[in-house]
Amino acid sequence: MAPYGTSCVLLLLCLGASLAEMVFRCPACTAERQALCPPPTDTCTEIVREPGCGCCPVCARQEGDFCGVYTPRCSGGLRCYPQPDSELPLEQLVQGQGLCGHQMDPEPPNLEPGCPPGEAGWKPSKEPSWLGPKESAVRLHRQEMKAKMKTNKVEEARPTQCQLELDQVLERISRMPFRENRGPLEDLYALHIPNCDRRGQYNLKQCKMSLHGRRGECWCVNAATGRPISVTPVVRGDPNCGQYLGTPEMDSPAQSNTQVPKGWV
After folding, report:
1. What is the pLDDT of residues 23-82, one digit of tens each?
2. Do residues 155 and 233 both lie within one domain?
3. I need a surface site. Which of 7, 120, 177, 226 has the fewest CB within 10 A?
4. 135 and 248 in one domain?
């Protein structure tokens, strides 16, 4: 078992320097704390732990339900996604305007090495019987999808680069604990959530979320790769990306690692 200090170092490397303030462990959910929880008022298809550091059981959101950073979690096998073509996807998640949907990546996202699953998340001393492991639910969903594909002889379309990047960022957010269910928006602002269109390609215009009443910065990218177009400005408004259609950088289909303007995670 790795020493406590080593675990902390690995955790900081995983989340990055800009998220260092968010690295902490939620208080343990003792039997006394759980005894104070009211039972769910509705008939739930699935029960999960409430968001943040809460210990009480709540109903999981189902496919198509609204969801976000501070709302109850989506049901097993689902993930909270910003709506397609959303200009400000992160702002949608903060405001609880995302939608629960099936995960788009057929394999687990490739996170940084040395970061064990759940290292930054909440882990009670004894997991309640009503809380099933997320990994088991996702695995079951994938097995069902594989069996369905074999039966129907239909091959599932491979996720696009934008969809894969989106899944990786949402996985990071899902592992972030938030103090008293209200994490600092500055830490979320440091993350870049790609803006994918309905075909899974990058929207030409990418924007950061608004913060403290100030509009977020926007820039233009290549629709296939997500790479910023060097000749376009980064502005707090509309950079009018359509005027750059036909330029070599905008038309290049070459695959490359997605980048964002310098200084943003």
Report:
1. 345 667 888 888 888 877 778 889 888 776 778 888 899 999 999 877 888 988 888 888
2. no
3. 7
4. no
All residues at 6 or more sequence positions from 251 whose CB lies less than 8 Å from its CB, including other chains? 245
Q: Other CB atoms closer than 10 Å to residue 230's CB: what's the count?
A: 8
| Identity of the residue numbered 190 | A
- Say what percent of the chain tops pLDDT 90: 5
Asked if residue 1 belongs to a domain, the reply is: no
What residues are paired with 220 via a beta bridge?
Answer: 205
Q: How far apart are CA 170 and CA 196, in angstroms?
A: 13
Q: Is 120 inside a domain boundary?
A: no
Residues 224 and 178: their CA atoms lie apart, in Å, by 34
Q: What is the CATH number of the domain that holds 163?
A: 4.10.40.20
Q: Which two tokens stand for residue 55?
A: 């210990």
State how far the Cα of 77 lies from the Cα of 11, in Å rounded to an integer: 25
**Shared-domain flag, residues 182 and 145:** yes
DSSP codes of every residue in 59-75: EPBPTT-EE-TTSPPBP
Number of domains in the chain: 2
Q: How far apart are CA 134 and CA 61, in angstroms?
A: 14
Give the domain range for residue 140.
Answer: 27-114+126-187
User: Is 181 part of any domain?
Assistant: yes
Question: For residue 230, what are the contacts with CB-CB under 8 A and spacing of at least 6?
Answer: 249
